[in-house]
Amino acid sequence: MSYTQIKLDIADGVATITLHRPEKMNAFTRMMMDEVIDAIDTTDADDSVRAVIVTGHGDRAFCAGADLTPEGGGHVFSDPNPVDDLSDERVRDGGGRLTLRLFNSKKPLIGACNGVAVGVGATMQLPFDIRLASDNARFGFVFARRGITPEAASSWFLPRLVGMQTALEWCMTGRIFNAGEALDRGLVRSVHPQGELMDAARGIAREIADNTSAVSVAMTRAMLWRLGAGGHPMDAHRIDSRAIYRLSRSEDAKEGIASFLEKRAPEYPDTVSGNMPDFYPWWDEPGYS
Prior knowledge:
By secondary structure, the chain is α/β, with parallel strands linked by helices. The protein has two domains: about 5-210, 2-enoyl-CoA Hydratase, Chain A, domain 1; about 215-289, Lyase 2-enoyl-coa Hydratase, Chain  A, domain 2 (Orthogonal Bundle). Helix content is about 40%, strand content about 15%. It has a six-stranded mixed beta sheet with strand order 1-2-3-5-7-10, sandwiched between helices. A four-stranded mixed beta sheet has the order 4-6-8-9. Strand 1 and strand 2 form a beta hairpin. The longest helix is centred in the N-terminal third of the chain and has 16 residues, at about 30-45.
Protein backbone atom coordinates (compact mmCIF):
# COMPACT_ATOMS: atom_id res chain seq x y z
CA MET A 1 0.00 0.00 0.00
CA SER A 2 1.32 3.44 -0.90
CA TYR A 3 0.77 6.08 1.77
CA THR A 4 -0.39 9.65 1.36
CA GLN A 5 -1.04 10.73 4.98
CA ILE A 6 1.70 8.85 6.84
CA LYS A 7 5.27 7.83 6.22
CA LEU A 8 6.74 4.44 7.11
CA ASP A 9 10.51 4.07 7.38
CA ILE A 10 12.26 0.85 8.43
CA ALA A 11 15.97 0.79 9.24
CA ASP A 12 18.20 -1.33 11.49
CA GLY A 13 15.33 -3.16 13.14
CA VAL A 14 13.30 -0.05 13.99
CA ALA A 15 10.22 1.15 12.12
CA THR A 16 9.10 4.78 12.31
CA ILE A 17 5.52 5.73 11.46
CA THR A 18 5.12 9.48 10.95
CA LEU A 19 1.69 11.08 10.75
CA HIS A 20 2.15 13.36 7.76
CA ARG A 21 -0.45 16.02 7.00
CA PRO A 22 1.68 19.11 7.61
CA GLU A 23 -0.91 21.49 6.20
CA LYS A 24 -3.48 20.17 8.74
CA MET A 25 -1.27 19.70 11.83
CA ASN A 26 -1.47 15.95 11.12
CA ALA A 27 -5.23 15.88 11.76
CA PHE A 28 -6.82 12.44 11.72
CA THR A 29 -8.94 11.09 8.84
CA ARG A 30 -10.35 7.74 7.78
CA MET A 31 -7.53 7.47 5.27
CA MET A 32 -4.94 8.04 7.99
CA MET A 33 -6.64 5.35 10.08
CA ASP A 34 -6.44 2.88 7.19
CA GLU A 35 -2.81 3.74 6.49
CA VAL A 36 -1.64 3.37 10.11
CA ILE A 37 -3.48 0.04 10.39
CA ASP A 38 -1.79 -1.13 7.20
CA ALA A 39 1.60 0.02 8.51
CA ILE A 40 1.10 -2.00 11.71
CA ASP A 41 0.13 -5.01 9.61
CA THR A 42 3.41 -4.49 7.74
CA THR A 43 5.58 -4.18 10.85
CA ASP A 44 3.93 -7.21 12.46
CA ALA A 45 4.70 -9.31 9.38
CA ASP A 46 8.31 -8.10 9.08
CA ASP A 47 10.59 -10.11 11.37
CA SER A 48 13.37 -7.55 10.89
CA VAL A 49 11.28 -4.99 12.80
CA ARG A 50 11.87 -5.18 16.53
CA ALA A 51 10.24 -1.92 17.66
CA VAL A 52 7.95 0.73 16.20
CA ILE A 53 8.12 4.48 16.88
CA VAL A 54 5.05 6.61 16.12
CA THR A 55 5.43 10.38 15.84
CA GLY A 56 4.02 13.38 13.98
CA HIS A 57 5.56 15.49 11.26
CA GLY A 58 7.10 18.80 12.27
CA ASP A 59 7.55 20.50 15.62
CA ARG A 60 4.02 21.81 16.24
CA ALA A 61 1.69 18.85 16.40
CA PHE A 62 1.60 15.11 16.89
CA CYS A 63 -2.06 15.13 15.78
CA ALA A 64 -4.51 18.00 16.20
CA GLY A 65 -7.50 15.67 16.52
CA ALA A 66 -10.03 14.61 13.91
CA ASP A 67 -10.19 16.66 10.71
CA LEU A 68 -13.72 18.04 10.90
CA THR A 69 -13.61 19.78 7.52
CA PRO A 70 -15.51 18.30 4.55
CA GLU A 71 -12.29 17.34 2.79
CA GLY A 72 -11.19 15.51 5.91
CA GLY A 73 -14.40 13.56 6.13
CA GLY A 74 -15.98 15.51 8.95
CA HIS A 75 -15.89 12.48 11.25
CA VAL A 76 -14.10 9.16 11.52
CA PHE A 77 -16.96 6.68 11.48
CA SER A 78 -16.50 3.65 9.26
CA ASP A 79 -19.45 4.71 7.10
CA PRO A 80 -19.98 8.31 5.92
CA ASN A 81 -23.72 7.92 6.63
CA PRO A 82 -23.98 6.15 10.00
CA VAL A 83 -27.43 4.93 10.95
CA ASP A 84 -29.29 4.96 14.23
CA ASP A 85 -29.02 1.19 14.76
CA LEU A 86 -26.12 1.00 17.22
CA SER A 87 -25.53 -2.67 16.46
CA ASP A 88 -24.69 -1.78 12.87
CA GLU A 89 -21.02 -2.15 11.88
CA ARG A 90 -21.21 1.17 10.05
CA VAL A 91 -21.28 3.23 13.24
CA ARG A 92 -17.91 1.94 14.44
CA ASP A 93 -15.59 4.68 15.67
CA GLY A 94 -12.50 4.94 13.48
CA GLY A 95 -10.26 5.91 16.38
CA GLY A 96 -11.36 2.73 18.16
CA ARG A 97 -10.63 0.60 15.13
CA LEU A 98 -7.11 2.05 15.16
CA THR A 99 -6.45 1.65 18.89
CA LEU A 100 -7.72 -1.94 18.85
CA ARG A 101 -5.24 -2.72 16.07
CA LEU A 102 -2.46 -1.01 18.00
CA PHE A 103 -3.46 -3.01 21.08
CA ASN A 104 -2.94 -6.23 19.11
CA SER A 105 0.48 -5.25 17.76
CA LYS A 106 3.12 -7.96 18.10
CA LYS A 107 5.87 -5.35 18.18
CA PRO A 108 6.47 -2.84 20.99
CA LEU A 109 5.09 0.62 20.24
CA ILE A 110 6.94 3.77 21.34
CA GLY A 111 5.15 7.11 21.04
CA ALA A 112 7.15 10.28 20.44
CA CYS A 113 4.62 13.06 20.95
CA ASN A 114 6.21 16.07 19.27
CA GLY A 115 3.58 18.74 19.93
CA VAL A 116 -0.17 19.24 20.24
CA ALA A 117 -2.19 16.05 20.76
CA VAL A 118 -5.90 16.56 21.34
CA GLY A 119 -8.96 14.40 20.85
CA VAL A 120 -8.03 11.33 18.86
CA GLY A 121 -4.48 12.72 18.74
CA ALA A 122 -4.31 11.95 22.46
CA THR A 123 -6.44 8.81 22.59
CA MET A 124 -4.58 7.03 19.79
CA GLN A 125 -1.44 7.17 21.93
CA LEU A 126 -2.96 5.22 24.82
CA PRO A 127 -2.18 1.72 23.44
CA PHE A 128 1.49 2.66 22.97
CA ASP A 129 3.69 0.75 25.38
CA ILE A 130 5.99 3.69 26.09
CA ARG A 131 5.14 7.36 25.54
CA LEU A 132 7.64 10.22 25.40
CA ALA A 133 6.81 13.88 24.85
CA SER A 134 8.59 17.02 23.73
CA ASP A 135 8.60 19.93 26.14
CA ASN A 136 6.15 21.82 23.92
CA ALA A 137 3.63 18.96 23.83
CA ARG A 138 0.06 19.69 24.86
CA PHE A 139 -2.66 17.12 25.49
CA GLY A 140 -6.42 17.37 25.69
CA PHE A 141 -9.28 14.91 26.02
CA VAL A 142 -11.58 17.65 24.81
CA PHE A 143 -14.73 15.67 23.96
CA ALA A 144 -17.03 17.18 26.60
CA ARG A 145 -16.21 20.61 25.18
CA ARG A 146 -17.48 19.44 21.79
CA GLY A 147 -20.68 17.85 23.08
CA ILE A 148 -19.48 14.28 22.52
CA THR A 149 -17.82 11.50 24.53
CA PRO A 150 -14.33 10.00 24.68
CA GLU A 151 -13.65 7.53 21.87
CA ALA A 152 -10.96 5.16 20.63
CA ALA A 153 -11.67 2.81 23.56
CA SER A 154 -10.08 5.44 25.81
CA SER A 155 -12.58 4.70 28.59
CA TRP A 156 -10.75 1.35 28.86
CA PHE A 157 -7.18 2.54 28.30
CA LEU A 158 -6.97 5.89 30.10
CA PRO A 159 -7.95 4.86 33.68
CA ARG A 160 -5.50 1.96 33.48
CA LEU A 161 -2.66 4.33 32.65
CA VAL A 162 -3.33 7.32 34.93
CA GLY A 163 -5.97 6.15 37.43
CA MET A 164 -9.69 6.81 37.51
CA GLN A 165 -9.55 10.20 39.24
CA THR A 166 -7.17 11.74 36.71
CA ALA A 167 -9.01 10.15 33.79
CA LEU A 168 -12.31 11.58 35.01
CA GLU A 169 -10.83 15.03 35.63
CA TRP A 170 -9.20 15.28 32.23
CA CYS A 171 -12.27 14.00 30.38
CA MET A 172 -14.92 15.89 32.35
CA THR A 173 -13.12 19.25 32.15
CA GLY A 174 -11.81 18.75 28.62
CA ARG A 175 -8.98 21.14 29.41
CA ILE A 176 -5.63 21.27 27.64
CA PHE A 177 -2.65 20.35 29.83
CA ASN A 178 1.07 20.50 29.29
CA ALA A 179 3.82 17.89 29.10
CA GLY A 180 4.80 18.45 32.72
CA GLU A 181 1.35 17.49 33.96
CA ALA A 182 1.30 14.51 31.60
CA LEU A 183 4.57 13.38 33.18
CA ASP A 184 3.41 13.96 36.75
CA ARG A 185 0.19 11.99 36.19
CA GLY A 186 1.89 9.08 34.43
CA LEU A 187 0.65 9.60 30.87
CA VAL A 188 4.19 9.91 29.52
CA ARG A 189 7.45 8.33 30.60
CA SER A 190 9.67 11.38 30.05
CA VAL A 191 9.79 14.89 28.58
CA HIS A 192 12.56 16.04 26.23
CA PRO A 193 13.60 19.16 24.30
CA GLN A 194 12.06 19.01 20.83
CA GLY A 195 15.41 18.37 19.18
CA GLU A 196 16.19 15.42 21.46
CA LEU A 197 12.83 13.64 21.39
CA MET A 198 13.45 11.24 18.51
CA ASP A 199 16.93 10.36 19.73
CA ALA A 200 15.42 9.41 23.09
CA ALA A 201 12.74 7.29 21.40
CA ARG A 202 15.31 5.61 19.17
CA GLY A 203 17.48 4.90 22.20
CA ILE A 204 14.67 2.89 23.81
CA ALA A 205 13.94 1.14 20.52
CA ARG A 206 17.60 0.21 20.14
CA GLU A 207 17.74 -1.15 23.69
CA ILE A 208 14.88 -3.49 22.80
CA ALA A 209 16.19 -4.40 19.34
CA ASP A 210 19.76 -5.08 20.43
CA ASN A 211 19.21 -7.00 23.67
CA THR A 212 15.94 -8.90 23.71
CA SER A 213 14.16 -11.86 22.14
CA ALA A 214 11.42 -10.84 19.69
CA VAL A 215 9.22 -13.73 20.83
CA SER A 216 9.75 -12.88 24.51
CA VAL A 217 8.82 -9.25 23.91
CA ALA A 218 5.72 -10.12 21.87
CA MET A 219 4.51 -12.52 24.56
CA THR A 220 5.33 -10.09 27.36
CA ARG A 221 3.42 -7.30 25.63
CA ALA A 222 0.32 -9.47 25.17
CA MET A 223 0.50 -10.80 28.74
CA LEU A 224 0.85 -7.44 30.46
CA TRP A 225 -1.84 -5.69 28.43
CA ARG A 226 -4.35 -8.53 28.60
CA LEU A 227 -3.70 -10.19 31.94
CA GLY A 228 -3.08 -6.97 33.87
CA ALA A 229 -6.77 -6.18 33.50
CA GLY A 230 -7.91 -9.67 34.49
CA GLY A 231 -10.28 -10.45 37.33
CA HIS A 232 -7.96 -12.73 39.35
CA PRO A 233 -4.19 -13.43 39.46
CA MET A 234 -4.99 -17.06 38.65
CA ASP A 235 -5.79 -15.87 35.13
CA ALA A 236 -2.23 -14.62 34.82
CA HIS A 237 -0.77 -17.69 36.55
CA ARG A 238 -2.30 -20.02 33.97
CA ILE A 239 -0.71 -18.16 31.08
CA ASP A 240 2.55 -17.42 32.91
CA SER A 241 3.03 -21.12 33.59
CA ARG A 242 2.48 -22.18 29.99
CA ALA A 243 4.56 -19.33 28.58
CA ILE A 244 7.61 -19.85 30.77
CA TYR A 245 7.47 -23.61 30.12
CA ARG A 246 7.36 -23.23 26.33
CA LEU A 247 9.86 -20.39 26.06
CA SER A 248 12.36 -21.98 28.44
CA ARG A 249 12.75 -24.79 25.88
CA SER A 250 13.19 -22.45 22.92
CA GLU A 251 16.28 -21.69 20.89
CA ASP A 252 16.07 -18.11 22.14
CA ALA A 253 16.33 -19.30 25.74
CA LYS A 254 19.43 -21.34 24.86
CA GLU A 255 20.97 -18.28 23.20
CA GLY A 256 20.00 -16.02 26.09
CA ILE A 257 21.83 -18.22 28.58
CA ALA A 258 24.84 -18.82 26.31
CA SER A 259 25.32 -15.13 25.51
CA PHE A 260 25.09 -14.26 29.20
CA LEU A 261 27.67 -16.85 30.20
CA GLU A 262 29.96 -15.94 27.32
CA LYS A 263 29.56 -12.20 28.01
CA ARG A 264 28.60 -11.32 24.44
CA ALA A 265 25.69 -9.70 22.65
CA PRO A 266 22.85 -12.14 21.98
CA GLU A 267 21.80 -13.26 18.52
CA TYR A 268 18.30 -14.62 19.00
CA PRO A 269 17.21 -16.97 16.18
CA ASP A 270 13.46 -17.27 16.87
CA THR A 271 10.95 -15.08 15.05
CA VAL A 272 7.47 -13.80 15.82
CA SER A 273 6.22 -15.13 12.48
CA GLY A 274 7.43 -18.67 13.12
CA ASN A 275 8.09 -19.36 16.78
CA MET A 276 5.32 -18.01 18.98
CA PRO A 277 4.12 -20.57 21.56
CA ASP A 278 1.56 -23.07 20.29
CA PHE A 279 -1.18 -21.66 22.56
CA TYR A 280 -0.79 -18.07 21.28
CA PRO A 281 -3.19 -16.35 21.02
CA TRP A 282 -4.87 -17.76 24.10
CA TRP A 283 -7.85 -15.39 24.00
CA ASP A 284 -10.95 -15.22 21.83
CA GLU A 285 -10.99 -11.89 20.04
CA PRO A 286 -14.42 -10.32 20.57
CA GLY A 287 -16.39 -9.13 17.58
CA TYR A 288 -18.20 -5.82 17.22
CA SER A 289 -21.95 -5.89 17.64
